[in-house]
C-alpha cells in the first residue's frame, strides 16, 4: 500500500477500524483502516470501487458487517454511527450527488427553512440561519427566486446550504461536481475550500481531489493508496491507466 506522507492537521475526527461490508456474499468494503484529521479529505476510485458506501458509514446509512467507525467531533464526544445513528446524522451533514433529489421547495429560502424544521427554532433564529447558510455558499441574492432559475452548480450549492444550516460538525459530499460544468465546478470547489468545518468527499474530479489535504484511493473495496494529493493521484492515474 502506498502511504506518502501527509501533514498532520488537528485531532482525529473519524476513525475506521477494520471496516468490512458484505452484501449478499459480495465484499463491498474490506479492511478499511483510516484515521482522518485533515480539513479536506478526498476519496477517489473507479466506478463501483466502494467510495459512496464508505461515505455512507459516516452517518449509518450503511452499517459495517464487522469492524467499526468512531466519530469524534466538537460537541459529540466519541460516537459510533451504527449505535447512535440519530446523533451521527445530526453531527454529519451528507450531500448526495444529485441536488434535485435533495432540493424540494420552490425557492432556496424555503428549501433551507425546511431542513431546519425539525430543530424547532424560533422564527427569527430560523430566518437568520437561512440567510447565513445561503450567504455562506454565495446565494444570498438568490434566496427568493424560483429554484428552477438556478444553475446546476447553484442547485448543488443550495443542497450544501440546506445541510450547512443545520450546523453539522462534518460535511460529507458524494461526488459534488459530477453533474457540473467547469464554471459551476469551480464555484463548488471554492465554496468547499472556504468552509470552516472538515469535509470528506468522493469525487472523480481530480482537480477537486488535488485541492484537498489528503487523498485516499479506493479499489475493489480496499484502500490502496493514501496520503498527500500529488503522489497519491499519480498512483491513481497509473492504476486507472493500467500502467
Ligand atoms: N446495498 C447493496 N447491495 C448490493 N450491492 C451493493 C450495495 N451497495 C453497494 N453495492 C455494490 O458495491 C459496489 C460499490 O458501490 P459504491 O456505490 O460504493 O461505489 P462507488 O465507488 O461510489 O462508485 P461510483 O463512482 O460509480 O459512484 C458496487 O459494485 C455496488 O453495486
From TrEMBL:
InterPro entries: AAA+_ATPase, ABC_transporter-like_ATP-bd, ABC_transporter-like_CS, ABC_transpr_CbiO/EcfA_su, ECF_ABC_transporter_ATP-bd, P-loop_NTPase. SMART domains: AAA (SM00382). Residues 14-242 form the ABC transporter domain. Keywords: ATP-binding, Nucleotide-binding, Transport. PROSITE patterns: ABC_TRANSPORTER_1, ABC_TRANSPORTER_2. The keyword 4Fe-4S does not apply. This is Energy-coupling factor ABC transporter ATP-binding protein. It comes from Aquipuribacter nitratireducens. The lineage of its organism: Bacteria, Bacillati, Actinomycetota, Actinomycetes, Micrococcales.
